[in-house]
Records
---
Amino acid sequence: MRASPKPILEVCCPSADFALAAQMAGAGRVELCDNLAEGGTTPSLGAVGVTLQRLSVPVMVMIRPRGGDFLYTPSEVDVMLRDIEAMTRLEVDGKRPHGVVLGALTRDGEVDASLSRELVAAARPLSVTFHRAFDLSRELDRSLDTLVDIGFDRVLTSAGCASVADGLETLSRLTRRAGENLIVLPGGGVSAKNAGRILEVAGVRELHIGASRWVASEMRHRVEGVPMGRAYDPDEYAREVADPDRVAAVAKDMMRVGGRS
């Protein structure tokens, strides 16, 4: 009797150091991204290059131009295509990214099939995963059929729940529906306490986890009360855009002050 393939653990990693630690701890594949607080955005080319140089396991690269929703403007699509092109051309010490992770929805919550086809075509021959935008789509079964039709290799999903462990019936249904056409990758709330239960779902042979912790900075010189960012409250139904009135007001004031000097 042929042995079942060993399950693959994919770890979401926000840096090259993080990715190396994940590999050393047992990760069989990493998903490299930036801005975990926003669900992950595209990492820098430098971060991808150093990760490829240091790791021996496959590296998937997030292609997402910003946080927030998954409805993209023409400029954002151009950014995604350029980032994908960079990944298809990148090679470090004979190693290339294994694949990219991306996703797009229409304003009505359907998988944006037209854009997705364009992105997948641009990414080949790399592997392509549709990320958890899938969980915010209108109807998971129909969305899965669309991904299969487009030719995605994998879909990352929490089965439409905050934690995939709460949606095992849905996960089972999706896995059966995908069959051999697409890998269903459970992610979201996966832990040592529930990984075994999730792997018991027929057809599930891969898991995706986030595994971060906070450590104190090694900085001795510290300045209090001067934050470099702001408190973040994630909202997939809001996105940050430019405030041209504020820009114009500051520019006008600068011109006024400059004119007096």
Note: The helical segments are 16-25, 45-54, 74-89, 113-123, 140-150, 168-178, 195-199, 244-260.
---
Amino acid sequence: KVKLGVIRGYSYGNLYVDYIQQHLGNRARIEVVSGHKGLRQNVAKLVARRIDVLVEDSSVFKYYIHSNAVRGDFIPVGLASSEDVYIAFSPKLDESKRYATLLSEGVARLRSSGKLREILKKYGLDDWRDKGKD
């Protein structure tokens, strides 16, 4: 009885096979948007109550809401997937190992100095290492 908003071409893990794929074409259950403004469209539909729920990474959603000053009471209703998000460097590039090390060391320095928390706060985000510690 819940209308779900999804973005065409996004990976939804098991949710795609278990639910989305089975209900594609049933507009009472699934609303599909396309293009680079998919999140914007789904948030607008959520605010207008044209969909009941959308699937998005919590940090991406928080940043979008914060940076676009979207008003509303949004309630996280669960995890569609517990997959981690990674920054990848091509193994074919000579500099990849160096870039990965620079990134890891830089984030560690920012975290230990408190600067990471400060930066993330500007975007309405929390340190991903703090998740689940509440």
Note: The mean pLDDT is 88.
---
Amino acid sequence: MDDRTIERLIALNRAFYETTAGAFDQTRGAPWPGWRAALPYLPPVIHVLDAGCGNGRFGRFLARESASEVVYTGLDSSPALLERARAALPPSAILLERDLLRDPLPDGPFDLVALFGLLHHVPGEATRCQLIRELAERLAPGGLLFFSAWRFAEFERYRRRIVPWPADLSAEPGDYLLDWRRGERALRYCHFVDETEHAALVAASGLREITTFCADGESDQSNRYSLLRREL
């Protein structure tokens, strides 16, 4: 994918979240069931990097469900969603306004790096692989990378929201524009990560795969997860 298209798609998604932050926050309060898969692997004290933290709901989930002492850092490019995260998380949480594709990541090391609900917004296969590699590099020895890919193209309800791709933008297989129908109307760029690409992302991480599985949604198939570990 060419740089011009990548910049256009990043700008489109930034505008999407500026427009829909309120409605998006209202529909993103509950934890995803798939997150529970990481709980048995967490150490007593855990430094967490939540990449694309949105309103901080994964941090809230860890605070409620994990037996670990959690030191939490959340990154997101949406100031509106970060404000909602600040209101919901303990004062000790570190929340940073960062564009994961343009700004440097915190050095770490982290015991858990999470990437949920964001990978489908990353334009370009090479860019997605690079992001996974960079997140893996922030892990402490024995640390976990836990990421998900949204399987929207498998469901008719989301296929009905696909709109025509602009003729002046390049595209890779699996690239779509979806409309948003709750409150303000808006468009977002979404990429469908199929099983082959998901396996390639796991390989790009250089980490050991603990498990890959599907979970969430009415069918328990909405997201495909991988939980990976950096060797000691």
Note: The chain has a mean pLDDT of 92.
---
Amino acid sequence: MLLESVNCPCDDFAGTPRELHAHFAEKHREFVTIDKSGSKWFYEVKCPSCSEGYHQAIRSGVDDEFLSEYEEEIFAVALDILLNHYLGEHVLGLMADDEESVE
């Protein structure tokens, strides 16, 4: 199923999944945090619809220099995970529920 338009869960933006990814990156950076816990760096995403989170270590031996060089790429990967969750659970999942209730 090709999604032509998806609504942002936080404002009135609507666009393709790729456009929603860019919108998240531009307007909703708070959905992703990159932080250090002990000696390890990790990223965490929080779904704005259900508050479900995903916590992932970046990789062993990451130093501040690595993080500053690759922060945007790490952020983009985290947004991919968030977008996949949002589309799967909250957009396509609701569409499937709606189709079942019609039958």
Note: The chain has a mean pLDDT of 86.
